[in-house]
Amino acid sequence: MATREVAEHKINRGFAIHFAVYAIVVGALAYMNHTRNPDNLWVMWVAGGWGLGVVLHAILAFTPATREKGVHNVMERQNEREARGSNMTDKMSQPAR
After folding, report:
1. What is the DSSP letter of 38?
2. In this structure, how many other beta carbons lie within 10 angstroms of the beta carbon of residue 26?
3. For 30-50, what is each residue's pLDDT tens digit?
4. Which residues of 34-54 are buried (b: 16+ CB within 10 A; e: fewer)?
5. Phi and psi of 42, rounded to 5°?
6. Do residues 12 and 51 lie in contact, with contact meaning Cβ atoms separated by under 8 Å?
């Protein structure tokens, strides 16, 4: 049975991973852009577009109404996985016919 704390942890971890990957990749691209072509700041398009996605993810993860819906969805998915897993275990423990 999925708990609320586990669901909230998964939501927080999902956002943290998204933000960390964004920061690392955009940082590396900014370095490349600055060292190879400083006159053309194309990295701003990447940072802006992906940054918009990160901001929307933060809104969905941390706004109370949408967070509640997200926690509910994560708990439902986890309960479905556990139910499928127990059915599979039951089927595997039965002798073959």
Report:
1. T
2. 19
3. 999 999 999 999 999 999 999
4. eeeeeeeeebeeebeebeeeb
5. -70, -20
6. no
Task: Assess if residue 34 is contained within a domain.
Answer: yes
Q: Which two tokens stand for residue 75?
A: 């708990």
- Type of residue found at 36: R
| Domain enclosing residue 63, as ranges | 12-77
Check whether 97 has a pLDDT greater than 60.
no
For residues 42 and 33, is the Cβ–Cβ distance under 8 A?
yes
pTM of the model: 0.79
State the DSSP code for 63: S
Domain-located, residue 4 = no
Tokens of 61: 């993860």
Q: Count CB neighbours of 29 within 10 A.
A: 15
